[in-house]
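SEVERITY: medium
COMPONENT: batch folding queue
REPORTER: lab tech (J.R.)

DESCRIPTION
The queue accepted two submissions in a row. Attaching both inputs and their returned C-alpha cells so the on-call engineer can compare them side by side.

ATTACHMENT 1
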Amino acid sequence: MLEPLRQGLPPIDPGAVSTSASCALPARYEAVRGARKFTSSTLDGWGLADRFDDVALVVSELVTNALRHAVPDGPPDSPAHPPVRLHLMRWASRLVCAVRDPSRESPEARGGEEDFSAESGRGLFLVESFSDSWGWHPLAGTLQGKVVWALFRVGPEE
C-alpha cells in the first residue's frame, strides 16, 4: 500500500538550485497536454530530453490528480478555480516536479498494483514507480492548498 510522504522536499540545498521553471494551468483537463508540452520544452532546454518519458508520465498523473480531486466543482474559469501550478526545479543531480493545487486533502492511492483492471486509481502507484521519491505538504501561512512533488535523480550525486 502506498503511503504518501507528508513532508517537504528531501534535504537539498535550495542555494544549489541551478534553474527552475513554472507555469499556471487552467482548471480544465486540456491542462494535462499543456503541462506535458511545458515539461518537454523545459527538459529540452536543460539537456534532459532523455528523461522526458518518465518525467512526463509523472507530471501527467500529478496534474490529472490535482484536476480530478483538488479543484472545486463549478465553471472552470470561475474565481473559485485557482489554477493548478506546475513547478520544475533542477539541481546538479536531481529534478523535482511539484504540482500545487487548492486542496489541503492528502493524496490517496486507490486500487494500486493489485487492481490493474480498474479504469482509474493507479496514478500515485505510477508516480511511485517512475520517480525516485515523492511526497506532499500543505502550503504554509495564508496560502491555501498543497504541493505534491516527485524527485528524479538525473546526474551524479552531489
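ATTACHMENT 2
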Amino acid sequence: MNVEAELVELGRLAEQFQTVLGPAMLRAADDFACHHEAQMIDLITQRLYGLSDFMRALRPSVPEAWAIDPDAAARVVTLGDMACRLRGVPQQISSHPAGEFEAF
C-alpha cells in the first residue's frame, strides 16, 4: 500500500508539473525536441499511474498472513522522507512556515 501511495503521489506531482509547463510547451510546439520532451512528461505521468493501478490490483491477491519488513529495502532509498513513507512511518509535520525556503 505504501508503494502504491507513493506512485499515486508521484503521478499527481508529474501531472501538476505537466499542467504548469503546458502553456510554455505549447509556445515551443514548433520545436520538435521540445514537443518530444513534453510527450515524455505525459508518458512518465501515465506510467506512474499505471504502476499504482498495478500495485492496487495486486494487493487483493497477497494473503493477509504475509508480512514484509520494508526496513532493509527502505535503507537503500536515499530520500529520507520517501524511505520513511515506504516503511510506514507517520509523516512529520513541517516546522517551517508556509512559503519559507526549504532545500532538498
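NOTES FROM REPORTER
The chain has a mean pLDDT of 79.
No errors were logged for either attachment.
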